[in-house]
Amino acid sequence: MLNDFIATIAVGVVAGGVMLVVRHLSGWRLAKWMVPAAIGLGMIGYSIWNEYSWFGRVKAQLPATVVVASAPEQQIFYRPWTFAFPIVDRFLAVDRGAGAEGTGPFAGQALIVQRWVPTQRVAVAFDCGKGARADLIEGATLGPDGALKGTEWRMVGAEDALLNAACGRS
Q1: Average pLDDT, the chain
Q2: pLDDT digits (tens, 9 = 90+) for 81-116
Q3: Do 42 and 124 fall within a single domain?
Q4: Could you give the CA distance from residue 30 to residue 40 in angstroms, rounded to a whole number?
Q5: Structural domain count, the chain
Q6: Are 154 and 137 in contact (CB under 8 A)?
Q7: Which of 149, 98, 154 is nearest to 126 (CA)?
Q8: 6-23 per-position pLDDT tens digit
Q9: In 3-state terms, what secondary structure has residue 97?
Q10: Which regions of 79-149 does DSSP assign to beta strands (E)?
């Protein structure tokens, strides 16, 4: 968040500097108010670009083994423009890892990615054939034979976005 603030200030300084140069080149015929207007428009423009391009930029940096399962568009009352142009500021992804290529149960990681919040990782076991998954928390493990220890399979069905992404059925 601090980086966004610093970048926004830097864009404002650059926009103001550019407008000062333009005023100088025009022989100071352009109005003085154009400098603060350029600063404000530059900062607002950068903020809008930064908000709306965040998901695409983060998604492009993900490794090839990571598949986005869900990216809900937000409509926020204190940002009324999001009702016309929804924004994505969080998403759920799954790192399928090497086990997803074989048949039978495999372990992967669910990633909960939010803007300005550290990414959370949860180990998850998937069984594409049964339509089930299990969270591997509190010492739960998936053995090489596909047997779970410390947890049980949850039948989630064909509508589960995380299972579909892990099984390549997005």
Answers
A1: 93
A2: 899 999 999 999 999 876 666 678 999 999 999 999
A3: no
A4: 17
A5: 2
A6: no
A7: 154
A8: 999 999 999 999 999 999
A9: coil
A10: 90-95, 106-114, 117-127, 132-135, 141-142, 148-149
28 and 110 share one domain: no
d(CA 21, CA 27): 10
Give the type of residue at 63.
Answer: P
Give the whole-angstrom CA distance, residue 94 versus residue 169.
13
Judge contact between 137 and 149, C-beta under 8 A. Answer: no
Tokens linked to 57: 């930029």
Say whether both 41 and 77 belong to one domain. no
- Are both 147 and 102 inside the same structural domain? yes
Based on the domain organization, do 94 and 142 belong to the same domain? yes
Task: Round to whole Å and give the CA distance between 106 and 104.
Answer: 7
Question: Helices marked H in 26-135 — which ranges?
Answer: 34-60
Which residues, listed in sequence order, are joined to residue 113 by a DSSP beta bridge? 91
DSSP code, position 103? S
Q: Compute the distance between CA of residue 48 and CA of residue 109 in angstroms, rounded to an integer.
A: 32
Q: What is the pTM of this model?
A: 0.84
d(C-alpha 66, C-alpha 27), whole Å: 55
Q: At what angle do helices 34-60 and 2-25 cross, to 10 degrees?
A: 140
Structural domain containing residue 143: 66-166
- DSSP type of residue 150: S
Match 């200030």 to its residue by tokens: 9
Q: Please, which residues bridge with residue 124 across strands?
A: 108, 135
